[in-house]
Amino acid sequence: MLVNTVDKKVDIMEQITKSQLFSLMLLYEIGSTTLFALGIGAKQDAWIVVLIATVISLGLVWVYTEVYKQYPDKNLAEILHSLLGKWLSGPLILLYALYFFSSSSFNYFEFGEIIRTTFLINTPQLVVLGVFLFTTIYMITLGFEVIARTGEILMPILLIFLVTIYFLASFSGVLDIQELFPVLENGIKPVLKEVYPVVKFPFGESVVFLMYWHMMNKKEHVRKIALLVVCTTGAILVLSNLIMITILGPELTAKSEIPLLRVLFNINIADIITNLDIMGVIIIFIGGFYKTLLNFYGAVLAVSTLFKIKNKKWLTIIMGIGLIVYSTTYYESISFHRWVGFEFNTPYIHSIFSSVPILILLMIWVKNKTKKLK
Amino acid sequence: MISLQSLFEAGIVPSILILGGSLYIAILLFMIVSYVIIYLIKRMINKSMS
């Protein structure tokens, strides 16, 4: 009886509202993307790349929400289980868990390393990553609603800092609109070539939200929010690309490791408003933290659903230790990390795992049609 | 295209994800095609019966 009441309480607790979902999705999508100039292979036309990618991503996110609409009370692992059966779904769920885990460790190492090399130079890497991990595990043990509520508080802070950076950059006098011209210098081909990677990263990564959407209290709003997040992220990324290119120029933007920080160092208004890198730290930290957290929790949920583990606390701690061990031993340096990211994650791994829901939706459609025939 | 050498250099996790994921996409595609064939056969039978 007591156990039942406790279970019910947990069920009631794990519900999130519209604004919380919006905040979490936005934090996830703009998490690490502000660090890079996406689509910079197209030089000064990078902003057109992001614009086209956003429109295509609307379709991709529509597919994800359509899969969710067919099973509104289930997470991705449960959807796969009921669609493919026990034996076929098991390995796929495990692959998804591994995918979320590897994405999480990718972000975890990246943000730990960036903070260590740029701001906390004398601090050992293990300390930075350890603090990061402790907070992650603590938040997960408190439940998803706590994660969502903190996201709701932190999202406006991230947005305010981003907008402030864009605003100050525009008035600092280093902005040169001429850098954006000529538009489409080499035709549309280089632009279209860059679109696909941007669709997969960051927009395709939102497949992890198939693990969380079932916790929404008003399920009919999920699609609207998801599409709104894609549009907002697209707008922020276009703005961020425009600012980076007009301040640094396309060549320097492409060459610099973290263009956002370079932009921040360039801002100088009357020698009073300078050294704004603290804003960069806050953006990197909040975005990186949520990206790691949501991917990691996705992996925990997938494993706990697959093996029917009720006590997620211990699973989180064990997987957390796995995360820190894997991240510190696997990634030898930031350059190896970038190589894995550009050569494997974006072109292959994100492509595969963000495309699987499209096939799942096709299967659902054909299955439904066959059922109707009966 | 991706080479086995670079896949080996990238480590065990990306290899599992890429190879396993590709295998699964193949399985799912195969399932979809077979579902569609079953659907078409069923429809044909239904039509000929009526």
Question: What's the structural blueprint in terms of helices and strands?
Answer:
The complex is a heterodimer of chains A (374) and B (50).
Chain A: H1 2-13, H2 18-30, H3 46-70, H4 76-118, H5 125-142, H6 144-171, H7 189-200, H8 222-248, H9 250-255, H10 259-266, H11 277-306, H12 312-330, H13 334-373
Chain B: H1 4-10, H2 12-49
**Domain module tally of chain B:** 1
How many E-type strands of chain A?
Answer: 0
Shape of chain A: globular
Largest sheet of chain B: none
Roughly what is the average pLDDT of chain A, rounded to an integer? Answer: 87
Q: How many domains, in number, for the residues of chain A?
A: 1
Alpha carbon gap, first and last residue of chain A: 43 Å
Most extensive interface between two protein chains, with residue counts: A-B, 32 and 27 residues
The quaternary organization reads as: heterodimer
Given helix and strand content, the structural type of chain A is mainly alpha
Cα(first) to Cα(last) distance of chain B is 52 Å
What is the helix/strand order of chain B? HH
**Which residues of chain A sit in consecutive blocks of at least 5 with pLDDT less than 50?**
5-10
Radius of gyration of chain B: 19 Å
State the share of residues found in helices of chain B, binned by percent.
over 70%
Q: CATH superfamily of chain A, please?
A: Amino acid/polyamine transporter I
Can you give a write-up of this model?
The complex is a heterodimer of chains A (374) and B (50). Chain A has 374 residues and is mostly helical. Chain A has a single domain (17-373), classed as Amino acid/polyamine transporter I (Up-down Bundle). Chain A has helices at residues 2-13, 18-30, 46-70, 76-118, 125-142, 144-171, 189-200, 222-248, 250-255, 259-266, 277-306, 312-330, 334-373. In chain A, helix 2 (18-30) runs parallel beside helix 8, helix 8 (222-248) crosses helix 10 (259-266) and helix 11 packs across helix 12. Residues 5-10 of chain A have low confidence and may be disordered. With 50 residues, chain B is mainly alpha-helical. Chain B has one domain (4-49). Chain B is 90% helix and 0% strand. Chain B has two helices and no strands. Chain B has helices at 4-10, 12-49. The longest helix of chain B is centred in the middle third of the chain and has 38 residues, at 12-49. Chain B is rod-shaped, with a radius of gyration of 19 Å. Chain B starts with a helix and ends with a helix. The relative contact order of chain B is 0.08. The model of chain B has no long low-confidence stretch (mean pLDDT 87). At the A-B interface, helix 4 and helix 13 of A face helix 1 and helix 2 of B.
